[in-house]
Specification:
Length: 451
Amino acid sequence: MNTSRRSFLKKSSLLAFPAIIPASAIGADGKTAPSNRITLAAIGWGMQGPGNTGAFMNMPDVQVIAACDLDKRHLDAAVNSINQKNGNSDCKGYKDYRELLARKDIDTVMIAIPDHWHALVSIEAAKQGKDIYGEKPLARTIHEQQAIVKAVQQYKRVWQTGSWQRSNDNFRVGAEIVRNGLIGKVTEVHVGLPSGHADFAGTKSKNQVTQPPAELDWEMWIGPSKMEDYIEGRVHKNWRWNYNTGGGQLLDWIGHHCDIAHWGLDCDESGGPVEIEGKGEFPPADAMWNTATKYRAEATYHNGVKMIIAGGHGDIQSGTKWIGDKGWVHVDRGRFDCSNADLKKVIQQRQGDKVVEKVIHKELPDDLRKVQLGKSPRGHQGDFIDCVKSRGKTLTPVETAHRSAIPGHLALISMITGRKIKWDPAKEEITGDADASKLLTREYRGPWKLA
């Protein structure tokens, strides 16, 4: 008499008609059962969003179930791409990130949005109990970064930054060579970044004020930043060349090569240099793209190590180069070289009609690899998912992302003020310069507030 209708029908049907259940639904065919998959939502479908999400969708233990973007054209593309990969129409699209984050069935989020939105979205995601894969730099200002770190720690979330170079073996081996003392005491580090402006969206010529397209919520897109007229050439992908929404090449890349520099210097747990001085070349402040096109900064760390961060200066090669009193090692995308012939390998490659020599890394032997840095066998996104399951520490946790970007933020402040900046790494504050300290944050446009 107390048996529910649902349970009665279930028992009756099982007795009378054996159910036919696809093996994939319970994981019997080697696939991960849907109930055991990590659910993920994509927030942002511009430059990094599609690639990041595609990597997650290729993992059998991840199910992407939602997407968010303020441009309907991008959102439609996201939903269609996800549904096509999943073979269904279950992915739901959102314009407001708060509605998406309120869903209890979403475990993780991938955030790839303009810098001026990083703090608000990341903090809300942490508050809603989501683990986060977030793009670099961590945020537009040091104050925003500090707020993100606090939220992630407070709500005990797993965070992976999109500084994927740590998941590439040549960068890891280079950092291990340094950490194991194989180039002696490090005296100088070169961090070579891009210069100029790259027209990622092909809209450089569209530099006139127009009405925003109907598909884009311009008021929401500007969000906490100062309201500006709509100019297509500085919105999608090219927002990074406008200081109202991005930080130029310096901040766009500091989370890559400076991140690797810190990895080799064992600076992940410290708050950056003690002083930094920089100079930059800027377009007019009212130009469509007004971020520095050429720049150079010299930072000094507590142990006396000098770091030169430069873009557009020929004496500083792209990538990261550590220089010690017993040698050097240089890493970049697709490149590895060092002064010790025993630590590298030279191979021959054919390029068209020519055979060229290329230097590649060798794995350090166990007797030299006393300090072993982390590997990610499933790639950078896979490392995140593995840590979501284990609740372990990712290769680029939020604290690391914060500290890797601090030299870039301080260099920009020095370039803007024209003064050397003194920094207290323990307190994470500028000392002796009240005006420069004001640049650690930005005024928010109402109704937006940084929690």
